[in-house]
Amino acid sequence: MSKHKFRTQSEEIKFFKHTKPQFVSKLIFHISVYNIHSKMPKGGEKIVRKYLNHELQNLRRYFDNNLDFYKYYRTGSNYLDHKYFVRGKYDIRLTLDTFYFETDPLFSTSHDYKVAKIIANDLLQVYLEDAISSLERKDTNMVTQDFPKVKLYWTESKTALIELIYALHSEGAIDNGKADIKVIADMFEHLFNVELGDYYRTFLEIKVRKNGRTKFIDSLKQALIKRMDEADDK
What we know:
It is a single chain. The chain is mainly alpha-helical. It has helices at about 10-40, 45-65, 65-75, 80-85, 110-135, 160-170, 180-190, 200-205, 215-234. α1 packs parallel to α5.
């Protein structure tokens, strides 16, 4: 990077706003998970759950402390990109972290780390919520039963099924909300002969959609209403 010359400012902004944070965020996430586990208190389920909830609160505090930049980044704004993501263009009035002055000026802008932190926090939030959900589950034994001999196949997109799974889990519609998201996902994979892959990552992609986070859920609602209307007309 010390030798590379960006052809345009837009190219530099793209690198520090989108490319670099994708890599740095993974480092932040895995170090955070390691630190969480290394500091986890020894004790019963109640103590561990309290500790994990405290870690979630830390994420929310970071969000509150950086609310303006969160809004800027989440809404896809770009009117301050020339200050946030161009080297040497920092503005101390724009929620600047003091550690920025200790970073390598040839490989850092004032806010590329904040973007990486936002991405990492999204991953960490899902990780912590899943860990807490697992602790709250009293019994992980799934009731075994014979599935119908006719195989069923999921013919919508995998993203649509993941959206449905997270909606059911969020509503607590399965096992009074005690069922772990992984157990629910495994069940749907088995039931509909589909491999969902990294559904945590897909959920994060759903979460940051710009035009409608719940596309499939909304389409289900419209389809059901249409069917009811058509039945009324007969």
